[in-house]
Design goal:
Length: 91
């Protein structure tokens, strides 16, 4: 079963290669979607794929890439399908 989730990740997540690390993790798990920085210092992501792969990636987001410090991750159910994973511009 495929699911779509919208995430907001807060903490030290900009300037520490978090988006690139998330993209690499997503691609290795076969998860599609996108990731971008927000002007408030958070990172926003949309994830689409097999439920187990998406949940694994959400768990990774709660830990981060070693350089990041995660304060909290907000997860919401979302709509939409995606092909591939892209890093988007800041909004």
């Amino acid at each position: 079963m495929k699911i779509t989730r919208h995430l907001r990740i807060y903490g030290l997540v900009q300037g520490v290669f978090f988006r690139d690390s998330l993209r690499q993790q997503a691609e290795s798990l076969g998860v599609a979607g996108w990731v971008r920085n927000r002007r408030d210092g958070s990172v926003e992501a949309m994830l689409y794929g097999d439920a187990s792969a998406v949940e694994t990636l959400i768990a990774w987001c709660r830990v981060g890439n070693g350089r990041s410090r995660i304060e909290r991750v907000e997860v919401e159910e979302a709509q939409g399908t995606f092909a591939g994973f892209e890093r988007r511009d800041t909004v």
